Amino acid sequence: MPTDKIRLGVSTCLLGQEVRYDGSHKRDRYLTDILGNYVEYVPVCPEVECGMGIPRESMHLEGDPANPRLISTRTRRDLTDQMVRWAEKRLEELKKENLCGFVFKSNSPSSGMERVKVFDPKGMPRKIGVGIFAGLFMKAFPRLPVEEEGRLHDDALRENFVERIFHFQRWRKHLEGGKSLGRLVDFHTDHKLLYMAHSPKHYRALGKLVAEAKKWDLREIYDTYEALMTEALRLKATVAKNSNVLYHLMGYFKKQLTRDEKAELQEIIEAYRKGHYPLIVPITLINHFVRKYDQPYLKRQVYLNPHPLELKLRHHA
Q1: What gap in Å lies between CA 295 and CA 47, rounded to an integer?
Q2: What is the H or E stretch that residue 241 is in?
Q3: Average pLDDT of the chain?
Q4: How far is CA 277 from CA 239, 250, 273, 314, in A?
Q5: Which residues contact 183 (CB under 8 A, 6 or more apart)?
Q6: What is the pLDDT of residues 11-34, one digit of tens each?
Q7: Where in this chain does the record put each DUF1722 domain (predicted)?
Q8: DSSP states of 171-183 as a string?
């Protein structure tokens, strides 16, 4: 696992900086105190950076949800063009930042990732919009992991997002080393079971792609591989899919585990499948067997150690 910090974009107010319209902040302790130990943040505040100042008038979205306008609530100024002109320049700068993801401020008319209020002509809001900057960012970086701070309080969504940003960092490191079929096969081998846990369908498609890689142009296969792996990891690793991977892992020890060890591992996998244990319990036992029996193939499987243990992402039942 890479030891250097992940570069992660973030809405500035979530870091505790007083940049909101009323001069306050929305510090998120998980982002600053826990994930921050592994991340180098690149803060972005669309309103301040595009020249709106602190304090400032509050704003909301109005009109067509697919193409809303950013309107100040008291003076009724249309600030859309000002925001868009700034965003286009800022996005070009962010392309040079080597970001591995972005955490947006929920419900924000500039930075909300989804379910942002959009007001119709009668002044009635519907939670169907996307913040102006967030929408432009996701179009500019369609494969980057993105999430909102509110959704990160959900255990499964948090685990999925953090797993994705660590994976994207490994992918960036891979690309920095140069593109070659042999290196791509190695990368895929390391991540096979991780993909299986998220999507057996994409796991099969990625395996077929790599197996038939000699028929493809190298740039084309890399682009297709990146698209498929991104789609796969957007899907959550469920208990059922994880259980399937755990039994798959157990199969590598058929000739090595004693009868009692096999029974113990099977009991623990079943206890996890029934919701009695968190995922970390069978994973810990399997990692023990990997070391005890020196299983070389499983030693390289990212699935068994996809992110730092200190983040405790597999501790929820």
Answers
A1: 53
A2: helix 239-250
A3: 96
A4: 11, 17, 8, 10
A5: 174, 177
A6: 999 999 999 999 999 999 999 999
A7: 192-308
A8: HHHHHHT---HHH
Query: What type of residue is 234?
Result: R
Map residue 293 onto helix, strand or coil.
coil
What's the confidence (pLDDT) of residue 1? 45
Distance of alpha carbon 195 from alpha carbon 169, whole angstroms? 16
Report which of 312, 293, 283 is spatially closest to residue 197, judged by C-alpha positions. Answer: 283
Block residue for tokens 């309080």: 153
Q: What is the pTM of this model?
A: 0.95
Euclidean distance between CA atoms 295 and 54, whole angstroms? 58
Distance CA 237, CA 193 (A): 11
* DSSP bridge pairs for 62: 69, 119
250-306 pLDDT, tens digit per residue, is 999 989 999 999 999 999 999 999 999 999 999 999 999 999 999 999 999 999 999
| Tokens read off for 226 | 């990146």
Least Cα distance to 137 among 166, 103, 168, 167 occurs for: 103
- Residue the block writes with tokens 């200190």: 310
Amino acid letter, 107: N
Specify the length of the chain in residues.
317
Tell me the helices (H) and strands (E) count for the chain, helix number first.
12, 8
The answer to whether 270 and 240 have CB atoms below 8 angstroms apart is no
CA angle in degrees (0–180, nearest 5) for 233-204-253: 90
The CA distance from 269 to 253, in Å, is 15
